[in-house]
Amino acid sequence: MSKATPATRALETAGAAFTVHAYDYDPDAESIGLQAASALGEDPARVLKTLMAQVDGKPVCVIVPSDQEVSMKKLAIAAGGKSAQMMKPPEAERVTGYKVGGISPFGQRKQVRTVIEQSALAHDQVFLNGGQRGLQVRLRPADVRDVLKAVVADVLA
Q: Quick one: which H or E segment has residue 48?
């Protein structure tokens, strides 16, 4: 497994301090984020999942703890829109350049508006997908926010 991905290169370019963590990816897992947390031996609240949605028809990346769900209504408001819906997997792959299970908020084909769940900023370090199935990056949540120029909001269901 290569540890150099568009995500890790984007983090290096941004000057963010991060570490890379590989784990055994289970393609049959019911929840990719929870499976990653379990494989890494981490609290699911610190292992964040990257989801792709559309707000008023425009792509939006939303980052939430792996044990939580997104409120579409709250996401729409946070992104300055009226309605939100999850993006279908083929569309998410086309927009991001990553395969589902390996979608990172960093190094996407085109940077889109990003919303991060406010509770994620309470941790010293968080894990996010590193741009490949079975690869996570660990960094400060403030660096996630700053690198992505993310909107911080309550988006949990």
A: strand 48-55
Question: Residue ranges of the alpha helices (H) in 3-157?
Answer: 6-14, 32-40, 72-78, 89-96, 141-148
The answer to whether 102 and 109 are in contact (CB under 8 A) is: no
Identify the CA nearest to 117 among candidates 71, 86, 81. Answer: 71
Distance CA 129, CA 18 (A): 12
Q: For residue range 98-154, what is the model confidence (pLDDT) as tens digits? A: 999 999 999 999 989 999 999 999 999 999 999 999 999 999 999 999 999 999 999
pLDDT band at residue 28, thresholds of 50, 70 and 90? confident
